Amino acid sequence: MKVLKFGGTSVANATNINLVKEIVAHSGSNKIVVVVSALGGITDLLLDAAHLASSQSEGYQSVFKEIEDRHLSTVKELININSQSKVLSKVKSELNSLETLLEGAFLIGEITPRLSDKIVSYGELLSSYIISEYFVESGLDCAYVDSRTLIKTDDHNEKASVNFKLTNQNCQEHFAEAKSTVSVMGGFIASSEKGNSTTLGRGGSDYTAAIVAAALDAAVLEIYTDVSGMYTANPKLVKQAKAIPHISYEEAMELSHFGAKVLYPPTIQPVLSKGISIHIKNTFEPNNAGTLITKNKNEKGKTVRGITHVGNMALLSLEGPGMVGIPGISKRFFEVLSQHDISVVFITQASSEHSICVGISANDIEKAVEIVNEAFEVEIERGKIKPAIAETELAIIALVGDNMKKHQGLSGKMFSTLGRNNVNIRAIAQGASERNISAVINEGDVKKALNALHEEFFEENVKQLNLFVMGVGNVGSKFLEQIRQQRSYLKEKLKLNIRVIGISNSRTMHFDENGISLSDWQNKLNSGEKANKSKFYEHVQKLNFRNSIFVDNTASSEVASTYSSYLGNSISVVTCNKIACSSEFDNYQNLKDLAREYNAPFLFETNVGAGLPIIDTLKHLIASGDKVLKIQAVLSGSLNFVFNNFNDQTTFHDIVKQAQEEGYTEPDPKIDLSGIDVMRKILILARESGNRLEIDDIKNNSFLPEESLNTDNNDDFFASLKKYESSFQEMFAKASAASSKLKYVAQYENGQASVGLQEIPKGHDFYNLEGSDNIVLFYTERYPNQPMIIKGAGAGADVTASGIFADIIRIGNF
Ligand code: ADP
Ligand code: ASP
Ligand code: MG
């Protein structure tokens, strides 16, 4: 004997019902009980119709029509035209009775739980009848059973309690007599001893199947649904979730109790006592192994088996000085909730006894506040207790597993993961069974929390990084290309899964929650929506992805001014834009403080020396207790290019023009030649060394004539260079005469910083600097005479992009 249960999606339409028939036909048992749900979505529609009718809205009629159409079209598709009329007339007659009940509710403008159960029972009545007729027609030896004649309950409508004695007896007697191989019955529905229709609670078809399996000592209970088993987390919310191959009854019960909807929580109880295993399988992929639920089965070493959530929760708190030391307050509090059938899902009481806080369904919160305030009216009036406090839009998330109790540190890991992702925890409880740790969080954070926890506990440390990239010019597009090339390597070797979720340039922006294809991003971006920096931010915030990183590849001050919003929402910022770090010190400090407070790294390695690890090295020196005495550096790739190529055979004007054309300078070359860019860099190094410095504190010994500095467009600037050619030649001649080379040097010592052109003699570390290379000498307490030297290509889109990339990887390893 086998019991097979098929859920709503599995029987949603003719095509799916055909798959069900195939599974039943090949199930290899000579006695099979098939328990079916209503056609997917019908129970909701029936409840909608009942609700509309009882609130005297004529809208119930169109809902009824939809219910009618779904059933009639399923019959027409499934049943051969020759035998259709009998089935159609039975289905129509049942639908007529249903319509009469709805009309009744409409006329009296009221609905009782008993009438609601009666109405809702039509879902399973009709599905089981249609399916059994289809099985017969397909040649199966099949009989229809009205579940209400077998499953007996009390008359507690909407979630009745089963009378096991009667039910077991009914089932045993009925199936002892049953001759046919297959019996089809509806799940979820039952009847009271007086014969009224009752139901077993939403999702209750699983329970019906378990009751029948236990009554008949079935060999196995197979539950067919729309996913391949019980997963490590809801697969609809966590893509990386995996089916759990084998799990204990207790763990499965705990998972379902805390929200794994794939199994209705009471289902386990009847089969557990008989030791019947439950096999959860996928109707649409019946060859997948699914999940086997049996006694005491826990794979070795597994602590957390699953992560679940229950949504639509509310917290109800009672607090006040009058609660301390007065016995019986909790008793009265819980009593009044239970008297009104409000079930408490979650309890925390501070050890100070100053407050009690419980989690209940949000549907009950209004009523709960009212009855609790009423029950404590006297104390509230006397100011001993404050009126009850309600908080809504909450959810419970829970880690579940048998072996969790034997391991320390799991809750620490859980809460630090949530904290890192800016998920605010409202309350915490560790289940008395010690099989779960649960926390109450905002409903809007559920998806992020589940995914972050899943990553932490199940994904072999594969960490997903979600990038939002602003600016796709030279550097930005190289950066995207580098990610494209390295993605699979990073996933495999560094266990980092990098996804680009949003891209924007100054014209358009584009988002794809599943990750933008990096071979086709240009087209997607071109046809994207109009760019808008605050909308971009709002979108990132709304998506609320874990490990989100905002990447700024622009040189825009407007973009730099958005960093604080990102960091304040635990979104990391990586930037090659120097504006923020060289703005007022307070702004720079504020960004660093936000980064620390919200656990969101703020990295800007490329602000100095492009891809060279200058800032990171400096940070390590400082963190390990070293002190910077002096910094000497050549930090402008553009100026190096200019002074390495300028000589008495060329003109200064032509070399600057060439540098501009080859992309070695900013589009406005004056930013480089005036020394501003180098000032910003030495300012950032001075700040990172621990000094409070402003840009105006830096001395700029400019080599440009006053007139060139005062131009306000590129044409005038270049014209002035031409005009002063002789003074540039003079500088060159003077340096050559002293066997020196011209280098633009930045210096920092004793709290003072300066930038300017210097004649560097042979033998100096700067003398042989080639092309656009940068060099930094750090003189510190540990490197007082021989400085630590970092040298290499310090400009160019490729190396800058790889520097940004390196920052992203630092965050990945954070
Ligand atoms: P049926 O109608 O077949 O009874 P349900 O909708 O009641 O199906 O249950 C299956 C659904 O349960 C899945 O589609 C999935 O969205 C949800 N679910 C929630 N948590 C889990 C989990 N841990 N494992 C599998 N499914 C889950
Ligand atoms: N049809 C019922 C529901 O939707 C029972 C079930 O599907 O298990 O709740
Ligand atoms: Mg279900």
From TrEMBL:
Gene3D superfamilies: Acetylglutamate kinase-like, Aspartokinase, catalytic domain, Dihydrodipicolinate Reductase, domain 2, NAD(P)-binding Rossmann-like Domain, VC0802-like. The keyword Amino-acid biosynthesis applies. Signal peptide: none annotated. Pathway: Amino-acid biosynthesis; L-threonine biosynthesis; L-threonine from L-aspartate: step 1/5; Amino-acid biosynthesis; L-lysine biosynthesis via DAP pathway; (S)-tetrahydrodipicolinate from L-aspartate: step 1/4; Amino-acid biosynthesis; L-methionine biosynthesis via de novo pathway; L-homoserine from L-aspartate: step 1/3; Amino-acid biosynthesis; L-methionine biosynthesis via de novo pathway; L-homoserine from L-aspartate: step 3/3. Keywords: Amino-acid biosynthesis, ATP-binding, Kinase, Lysine biosynthesis, Metal-binding, Methionine biosynthesis, Multifunctional enzyme, NAD, NADP, Nucleotide-binding, Oxidoreductase, Sodium, Threonine biosynthesis, Transferase. Its cofactor is a metal cation. It catalyses: L-homoserine + NAD(+) = L-aspartate 4-semialdehyde + NADH + H(+); L-homoserine + NADP(+) = L-aspartate 4-semialdehyde + NADPH + H(+); L-aspartate + ATP = 4-phospho-L-aspartate + ADP. One of its GO terms (molecular function) is homoserine dehydrogenase activity. PROSITE patterns: ACT (PS51671), ASPARTOKINASE (PS00324), HOMOSER_DHGENASE (PS01042). InterPro entries: AceGlu_kinase-like_sf (IPR036393), ACT-like_dom_sf (IPR045865), ACT_Aspartokinase (IPR054352), ACT_dom (IPR002912), AK-HD (IPR049638), Asp/Glu/Uridylate_kinase (IPR001048), Asp/hSer_DH_NAD-bd (IPR005106), Asp_kinase (IPR001341). One of its GO terms (biological process) is homoserine biosynthetic process. Its EC number is 1.1.1.3, 2.7.2.4. It comes from the Bacteria. Residues 399-477 form the ACT domain. Homotetramer. Bifunctional aspartate kinase and homoserine dehydrogenase that catalyzes the first and the third steps toward the synthesis of lysine, methionine and threonine from aspartate. In the N-terminal section; belongs to the aspartokinase family. In the C-terminal section; belongs to the homoserine dehydrogenase family. This is Bifunctional aspartate kinase/homoserine dehydrogenase I. It comes from Euzebyella marina.
